[in-house]
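2024-03-11 09:14:02 DEBUG pipeline.ingest accepted 1 chain
2024-03-11 09:14:02 DEBUG pipeline.ingest length=92
2024-03-11 09:14:03 DEBUG pipeline.predict start
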Amino acid sequence: MNDESRKPADIAVALHYDGKRAPRVTASGRNEVAERIREIAIEHGIPMFDNPELAMLLGTLDLGEEIPEALYRAVAEIIAFAYYLSDRATAI
């Protein structure tokens, strides 16, 4: 098995969190779709976090589906990171 075959698939997942309910999947895709999701995030100043393993798990969820409780902690850390980046951006 070479290094290429062990790499996680190119995947991107977008989440929406309103602060009231669990985050939910709003976009998910692989390869070209994943690239477009990242481009849209950049265009709109949405923070991104690179975690291919978590993205692969989240990518199995249906659009609009809330994340499962087992992933709350991992996603909460990413949301906290995004809030941190957003606060820093407004301070500059």
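2024-03-11 09:14:41 DEBUG pipeline.report Residues 3-91 form a domain with the name from scop fold (CATH 3.40.1690.10).
2024-03-11 09:14:41 DEBUG pipeline.predict end
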